[in-house]
Every structure is written in C-alpha cells, then in structure tokens.
C-alpha cells in the first residue's frame, strides 16, 4: 500500500482522508468566534462523490461557546490533484444568539 502525503497530487478518490479548516464565524451580538475544525473521513454519496460530517464547538469568546453539527458540500477539484469542500451552517443558539459559519476547508489529496 502506498502512502499519500500532503504534497502528493492524486487523481480520483482517496479513501480515509479528512479536511481541516480555520475560520471565523459571522458577527452576532457584537462579536465573532474562531472555528477550528477537522472533518470525519469521507461519506460516499449516491452520485459517486463524497461529503464530510463535522461537529464541534467554536472557541470560547465573549464568555461562552457555541456547538455545531454539519455536513459539507460535495468535493470541488482545485487543481494539482487536490479538492476542497464548501460548508455553510449555523451554530447552536447560546446566550440568546447563534453564528453563521461558511467557507471552504483546506485542500486534501484526490480530485473526487
């Protein structure tokens, strides 16, 4: 079995990969939270692609945190044998508000 490293470009589907992301939530109640995330391994979809599941919490800011559970969009090839996923979700409501989180995760090997 060959190993695939972070700088190896790979066509097709790479099993057992995940994605990380570092982002900020949208502003709500006068503040933002940083969101550090690592997804689940790929979840196959009926069209032959895959998505990822994630759950966690945003970093403690303004005296509280928020939790989230979400699925990514499908794989988006970005060239050089890598792909990303778009995400768009809301955190739990805590202290009377929630936050919107959207963006693209870090590239991972594979084009599908």
Automatic annotation (TrEMBL):
Protein name: YmaF family protein
Lineage: Bacteria, Bacillati, Bacillota, Bacilli, Bacillales
InterPro entries (UniProt xref): YmaF
Superkingdom of the organism of origin: Bacteria
Pfam family, one: YmaF
């Amino acid at each position: 079995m060959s190993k695939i490293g972070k700088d190896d470009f790979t066509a097709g589907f790479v099993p057992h990969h995940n994605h990380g992301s570092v982002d900020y939530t949208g502003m709500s109640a006068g503040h933002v939270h940083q969101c550090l995330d690592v997804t689940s391994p790929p979840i196959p979809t009926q069209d032959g692609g895959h998505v990822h599941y994630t759950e966690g919490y945003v970093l403690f800011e303004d005296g509280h945190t928020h939790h989230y559970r979400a699925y990514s969009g499908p794989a988006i090839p970005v060239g050089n044998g890598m792909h990303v996923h778009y995400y768009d979700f809301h955190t739990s409501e805590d202290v009377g508000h929630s936050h919107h989180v959207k963006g693209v995760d870090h590239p991972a090997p594979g084009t599908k």
